[in-house]
Every structure is written in structure tokens, then in C-alpha cells.
TrEMBL record:
Keywords: Coiled coil, Metal-binding, Zinc, Zinc-finger
Record organism: Oreochromis aureus
Taxonomy, superkingdom: Eukaryota
Domain RING-type: 14-54
Coiled coil: 194-239
Residues covered by the B box-type domain: 92-132
Keyword Nucleotide-binding in annotation: no
Keyword Zinc-finger: yes
Record-annotated B30.2/SPRY domain positions: 281-473
This protein's name: Nuclear factor 7, brain-like
GO MF assignments: zinc ion binding
Length: 473
């Protein structure tokens, strides 16, 4: 583009849309704009100022500058025509030899370009040259392969987007379900505390009523004694008013009565008449908490639902699991076991000693133990330390260790105790009923280990869930 064309393009461009002016209007400040662009700008700005210099325009309905419009339309037609000729010329140069005006029939593999059979003859001696048709066939094959790779890559991205959408929807369900269960648990605690509060308030009122009755009984007796004393006092006063002979005849009876009542012991306040506040308030929170412990259980291991295979169903408290007959619609998040019916504990261990009991009941197929954090959750996985699992397997009525050897037991196991000594590199299994040793792995652990559970489909057999045994706090 010549300098003249560059100048014209700058002069004939709208300062709002940066395109060649359409139906141009010129404001009193000499700045020009497309009519439609200016009107939209004024509507958004809610004023009639120039978009460039901000000078207010007195023209609420500006007129099209037809001279400028003709010049702009002419320039746009010429610009498009010139661009079209350039594109044609460039296209021609790419497919036609500059000198011989013919399409090249050969392709230089070394330089990856089409060559003329006359001008580029030296290439036929020192470079690998093949017919264009052959080159096109090979290059299209390569491009198709790249095309397939791009499609595969795009499909993978689409699958990730799909999974994220599933994660979002599942997270919403998790939110509602978890919120509902949290409220239910706290409602139980609230109900317990409410009942405990009412019970203790009732005991307080009962004590107040009981002691009130005792005090009333004592006061009634005292009032009766006061009445009797008052009668005796009145009798003595009356006796003292008598003359000599009448007094002598009756004073002995009055004196005897008075002395008898005077010899009665003085009244005493009953001990414990006040409410035993210390009994009701002393260590109140602690005593309520101790009583609450009888209703609250603790599980040494909590199952992580985000790792559960789609066929596994968990209890609300996340301590037991069963194999369902139908698959759940769950997102394929990285933590989820997708190939096997496995689930992991929610917390892992990097040191120390840990143990928990698993009630396996009469399930025909299961394995329990530990697996490392990086265990493959999507592909092949075998019950073996080689694959990052240290488990005891039960299958076809046999108990099997991680190398496929049968483990001898005295009786069918209903419970399994798993013990981990991370620092010593030991995973042991016991019968918790009599602590009979079953099997021990000895290895070197280098990463976090998670409790591992797997349960097979029991078919039509009626079996209970596999669950972690809870204890009272």
C-alpha cells in the first residue's frame, strides 16, 4: 500500500469502529464518524459530545456528509479490488513457476517445497525429489494423522469439561446431602441436650418441692407448739391475777403444765433445707458430656466416598460399604477407583502405629488392608505389594496373601484387625476375638498409606455390609 493510500485510509477511518466510514457525518469540531457509530456512542454516553475531543455538538440529528461518503465508498471499492488482485497474484506464484508459467510437477523432500523441473534441475541431482502427486499423498497422510491427533486432543479436553460438569452437579448433590446429615446429627445432639436440660430442671424442681414439703411440715409442728405455749402463757397470766385463796387452790396444776411445756426442747432448723445448688451446677457440662459419650461412637477409619467405585454404596456415617446391584452416576474424578470395586479411607498415615477392626461377616469375596497413595485407581491392580497394596484377600472360601499363597486359619473369620507399624514397615492381620496372628507383611514404606477395602458382588446371597467397627468414646 502506497503512502497516499495509507494517508487516505487514516483520513477515511471511523474513530469509533476503526473501519472505513459508512454514511459519514462531520461534527462542528471537524471530526468524522459513521452515522450509526456516532448515534450508538451518544446513546451509551447519554450526551452529544464528540467521542474524540469531547466537545459538545449542537447537532442532535447530524446530516450525512455526501462528499466524504463518495470518497470513502470509492476508496473501499478500490482497496478491496487491490487486495483481491494481490491474493490472486500470491496464489499464482505458489503454484506456477515464475519463469515457465506452469504448475510444478516435482517436490523437493529435503526443502519441503515444490520445484520446477527446468529451473530447479540441480535439486534432482543432490536432493530427494519425488512427483508432486506422491508428495501430496504422503503429506496428506501425515496431515490426516495430525488432524486425528488434534481431534483426539480436543475430545480429551471435551471429556474433561464433561467430567467437570459432572463434578459440579455431584458437588451440589453432596452439598445438599451432607448439609442434611449434619443437621440431622446436630438435631440428635440438640434433642439429647434438650431432654437432658428438661430432666435436670425437673430434678431441680422436684428437690425444691420435696424440701418445701419438709419445711411446711416442720413449720406446722412449730406453729402447733406456739399455739400450745400461748395457751399456757394465758393460763399463767390468768392464775397470777387470782386472789390468795383461789390462787392457792389452782396454782399447782397451772405450774405443772407450764413446767412441762418449758422442759420441751427448743426448736431446731432442719439441715439441708436449701436446694443443693452445687449438686445441680457442679461440673454440669462435664457430667452432661460424660452422659453424651454413651450415645456417641468413634470410628478409627472413615471411608472416603470420593474414592468409591460406582458399584459401592456407603452408609450415612461413612463406616460401612456394600456392593450394589446397579451402578451409580458418579464423576470420574482422579481419586475414584473405576476399574475395581475398591474404596479407600479418608485419611492416610506417614508414621506411627495404627489399628482398626473390620467386620467382614460372611461375604464370599473381599480384601482389606492398606494401599499407597499413588496406587493406580484407573488401570490394572492386583493385591500385591508390587502394585502398592498390602492386603488380606478372601476368595472362594480361602484366605490369600499378597503373593497368592493360601493363609491357614483355625476358623472362618468374621472380623479382621489390621495393624500398621509404619516406621518398622509392618502390616499385620489378626483375629480380634483372641488376637490370633494371621499374616504379616514386612516392607519399606516411602509414601502415605491409606486404609484399603474391596468387596465383591455377593449375588443373591444375603450378606451384611463390610464395616469398620466403632467404639464408644
Amino acid at each position: 500500500m502506497s503512502e497516499k493510500d495509507i494517508f487516505l485510509e487514516s483520513y477515511l477511518s471511523c474513530h469509533v469502529c476503526s473501519e472505513t466510514l459508512k454514511d459519514p457525518v462531520t461534527l462542528i469540531c471537524k471530526h468524522s464518524f459513521c452515522l450509526n457509530c456516532l448515534q450508538q456512542f451518544w446513546e451509551q454516553a447519554k450526551n452529544t459530545n464528540c467521542p474524540i475531543c469531547k466537545r459538545k455538538s449542537s447537532k442532535g440529528d447530524p446530516r450525512v456528509n455526501f462528499a466524504l461518503k463518495e470518497l470513502a465508498d470509492s476508496f473501499e471499492v478500490r482497496r478491496k479490488s487491490g487486495l483481491s488482485e494481490t491474493e490472486k497474484r500470491e496464489k499464482k506464484l505458489t503454484v506456477v513457476c515464475r519463469k515457465h508459467e506452469e504448475e510444478p510437477k516435482l517436490f523437493c523432500v529435503d526443502e519441503q517445497r515444490a520445484v520446477c523441473s527446468v529451473c530447479d534441475f540441480p535439486h534432482q541431482q543432490s536432493h530427494k525429489v519425488v512427483p508432486v502427486e506422491e508428495a501430496v499423498s504422503v503429506l496428506k497422510k501425515h496431515l490426516k494423522s495430525d488432524f486425528k491427533s488434534l481431534q483426539d486432543k480436543r475430545n480429551k479436553y471435551k471429556q474433561v469439561v464433561k467430567t467437570y460438569n459432572e463434578v459440579i452437579q455431584h458437588s451440589k448433590k453432596q452439598l445438599l446431602s451432607t448439609e442434611r446429615q449434619i443437621r440431622a446429627e446436630f438435631n440428635k445432639l440438640h434433642q439429647f441436650l434438650k431432654e437432658e436440660e428438661e430432666s435436670r430442671l425437673a430434678a431441680l424442681r422436684e428437690e425444691e418441692e420435696q424440701k418445701g414439703r419438709t419445711i411446711s411440715r416442720e413449720m406446722k409442728m412449730i406453729k402447733e407448739q406456739i399455739s400450745s405455749l400461748s395457751d399456757s402463757i394465758s393460763a399463767v397470766e390468768e392464775e397470777l391475777q387470782k386472789h390468795s385463796v383461789p390462787f392457792l387452790r389452782s396454782y399447782k396444776d397451772t405450774q405443772s403444765r407450764a413446767r412441762a411445756q418449758s422442759s420441751v426442747s427448743d426448736p431446731q432448723l432442719v439441715s439441708g433445707a436449701l436446694i443443693d445448688v452445687a449438686k445441680h451446677l457442679g461440673n454440669l457440662s462435664f457430667r452432661v458430656w460424660e452422659k453424651m459419650k454413651e450415645k456417641v461412637h468413634f470410628s478409627p477409619v472413615i471411608l472416603d466416598p470420593n474414592t468409591a467405585n460406582c458399584c459401592l454404596y456407603l452408609s450415612h456415617d461413612l463406616t460401612s460399604v456394600r456392593h450394589g446391584d446397579t451402578w451409580q452416576q458418579l464423576p470420574d474424578n482422579p481419586e475414584r477407583n473405576t476399574k475395581y470395586a475398591n474404596i479407600l479411607g479418608s485419611e492416610g498415615f506417614r508414621s506411627g502405629k495404627h489399628s482398626w477392626d473390620v467386620e467382614v461377616g460372611d461375604h464370599p469375596t473381599w480384601n482389606v488392608g492398606l494401599s499407597k497413595e499413588s496406587v493406580d485407581k484407573k488401570g490394572e491392580l492386583f493385591v500385591s505389594p508390587k502394585y502398592g497394596t498390602w492386603c488380606l484377600l478372601h476368595k472362594n472360601g480361602k484366605y490369600i496373601d499378597g503373593v497368592g499363597q493360601t493363609v491357614t486359619v483355625k476358623k472362618s473369620l468374621q472380623r479382621i484387625r489390621v495393624q500398621l507399624d509404619y516406621d518398622r514397615g509392618e502390616v499385620s492381620f489378626y483375629d480380634p476375638e483372641d488376637m490370633t496372628h494371621i499374616y504379616t507383611y514386612r516392607d519399606t514404606f516411602t509414601e502415605k498409606l491409606f486404609p484399603h477395602f474391596s468387596i465383591g458382588n455377593a449375588g443373591n446371597a444375603k450378606t451384611s455390609d463390610i464395616k469398620i467397627c466403632q467404639t464408644e468414646i
